[in-house]
Each structure stands twice: as C-alpha cells, then as structure tokens.
Amino acid sequence: MIRQKRNPFCSSLLFVSLLLFTSVSGCADHTGRQRGHLSKRQQANSPNGPNSPNGRGPSGTNGTNSSSVTPDWAYDASYDWGALQPDYAECQTGTQQSPIALSLTNGLSLYHHPTFQGYDRNVSGNWTNWGYGPAFTLAHPPDEYTGLPSAHWDNETAYLKGWHIHAPADHSVGGDRSKAELHLVHVNSKGKEVAVLAVRLDPGTSTMPFFAQLPKMVPFVTGRGRTPNQDPASRPEDDMKPAVVQDVQMDVGLLLAGVLHFNEFWTYKGSLTSPPCSQGIRWFMARTIAFTSVDQMRAILGACTFSARAEQEVWLHEINSA
User: Fold this and answer.
1) What pLDDT is stored for residue 3 in this prediction?
2) Is the distance from CB of 110 to CB of 320 less than 8 angstroms?
3) H-helix or E-strand containing 185?
4) Residue 41 above 70 pLDDT?
5) Peptide bond preceding 219: is omega within 30 degrees of 0, i.e. cis?
6) Is 157 helix (H, G, I), strand (E, B) or coil?
7) What is the pLDDT, as a whole number, of residue 12?
8) Rounded to an integer, what distance in angstroms lies between the CA atom of residue 283 and that of residue 36?
9) pLDDT number for residue 22
10) 169-200, pLDDT tens digit by residue?
11) Can you state the percent helix, strand and coil of the chain, rounding each to 5?
C-alpha cells in the first residue's frame, strides 16, 4: 500500500484558517453586535436631542419627540457613552453620576427635606411619550417657570417642569429594582434642571388615582416612524413624532399624597441619567413605593421601552449628608 505524504504547507494553512475562524466567531457577540446596535444611532444629534431627558426631551421645552433624528446613544450600551463624542465625556469621568444603588444601610435623610407649594391645584399640559415611556410637560409662558408648582429645600427653590417614566426603575433599593420609576423634573427660574424627585412604581391591588385621571397611554415610537402593532402604511415612515394630547388637566399632588409627600427619602448629589450626563442635580428618592393596579402597570409597561442606565458606583455623591 502506498502511503500518501502530507503536504506541510496545506497543514499550516488549515491551522491558520481554523485559528482565524475561532477568533472571529468568539468576538462576534462582544464587538460585532455592539457596533451594529450602536451604528443605528450614530446619526448627528445634539446632546440636548429630543429623546434625551436633559432638558430637551421628557422634561424639556415641549416634552415631545419632535425630531426624526434618532439619538446617537442607547440605554443598553450606557457603559460606553463617554466614548461617543466629547460632549458626553462627563458620562465617563463624572464623580457624581446617576443612578446609584440605594439601601436602608445608607439610612434615610435628616437633611434637605423638601416642602411643596402649588401642588394642590390642577395643572394643564401636554400628555405624550418621550420615546421611551409616558411623559407630561406642564404648560407655561415661554421662559417663565416661577408660576409652576415648586419644591423647596434649604435655601433652594425649583419648579416642576414635567415628569416622565423610566422602565425598569433607574435606581435599585436594597438590591431590588421596581418595575418603573417616575421622575418629577424641577428647574430653576431660568429653566435649568437642578433637581429630580423620583418615585418607584410597582403593581399592587388597587387603582392609583394619579394615573386614573390621565388619558390612555401614548405608545412609544419604534424605528421607521411606527408605533408598536401599527400598520406600516398608516403613516409616513419618516414621521417619528408620537401623538401629543394637548391641554390635559391633572392633579400632580395625587402622586405626592401617595408617597406621603416625601416624608422619608434618600437624597444625594447626582447627574442626568442620559447624555451629556450633566451633574449638579439634587436627587430625592421617596422611600415609599407608589402602587398601581395590575392593569395600570401593564398599560405603563406597554407604553415603555428599555430606559434604565447602568447603575454607577458611589463616589462623591454625599448620600444623605448635610
């Protein structure tokens, strides 16, 4: 029998080919998917873009997703925001980034206790979806905020510009993360965000009056201008604007009553939870959870898409400090 001699060049080529295949297939899930996911969002957009809760989105000037340009960042890739563009550097280098994990081992705050004015009356505003969940923006004259309901602590006064919902909750408490978190965004007299009062939302057994007073949830807008389960031919594909219900009357005080007016709370120095992650925000987190009915929570989650930034390590946040 004649034994066929093995070609050493072919054996080397086969080995190199197998090595390259293993390397590529091993990295695809780590880098390929990440780049593909972010590339959809790499369109030009200002740091104060319509989907950002940094003053131009849910808590912003009009509270609507008013542009067809998608943001260049994604919540499920928040670990890399600082590398996307120079304006987002603070997302990576900031010393008081939000959200953070809270716990009763931190104690509860004995300082900076908020009091409220103007929350005991109905307010008018726009009911919409900020691209990630339900949002409400209070009506007010242009660049005039001092007539809005206000929160007071120490020598500070801030005015309620609007509220919006994140799902799941941004902050965990004692290792538990609620189904959703509502942010009451407050600004100073010039309209700059200075404080967020946060309330955790979970399903319970009774209807929550705060949500019962509102119209039907406005669905978030998916890619290519469609709301979930919507006929693609029912609206232009380049129309990224969610519906806006104008002149809605509501009593925001119902929410405060449900969490005992923040009688027990955590507080810390933090930041916005989306790019550019600007710091200088006083956070208040109510210890009391606001419970909705099962149907209300299903409606809230049905109008939401993932919008929780990865929790940041505690650094110079001064939790509950004087």
Assistant:
1) 47
2) yes
3) strand 180-187
4) no
5) no
6) strand
7) 45
8) 34
9) 38
10) 999 999 999 999 999 999 999 999 999 999 99
11) 25, 25, 50
Model confidence, pTM: 0.78
Model confidence at 236: pLDDT above 60: no
Q: Is 100 in contact with 177 (CB distance < 8 Å)?
A: no
- Note the helical H segments in the chain: 8-27, 33-39, 90-93, 209-212, 253-258, 294-302
DSSP 30: I
Give the residue among 153, 247, 255, 179 at the shortest CA–CA distance from 212.
Answer: 255
CA separation, residue 179 to residues 5, 135, 284 (Å):
67, 16, 18
pLDDT digits 0-9 by tens, 76-134: 999 999 999 999 999 999 999 999 999 999 999 999 999 999 999 999 999 999 999 99
What's the pLDDT tens digit per position in 159-172? 999 999 999 999 99
Distance CA 117, CA 152 (A): 8
- Least confident residue range of 5-9, 291-295, 310-314: 5-9
What is the DSSP-derived secondary structure letter of residue 261? G
Structure tokens at 56: 């131009």
Contact 110, 98 (CB under 8 A): no
Closest CA to 221 of 128, 283, 140: 128
- Rounded Cα distance between 286 and 108, Å, is 10
Of 82, 282, 294, nearest in space to 197 by CA: 282
pLDDT at 81: 97
Q: What is the pLDDT of residue 70?
A: 63
Helix (H/G/I), strand (E/B), else coil: 206: coil
Distance CA 119, CA 103 (A): 28
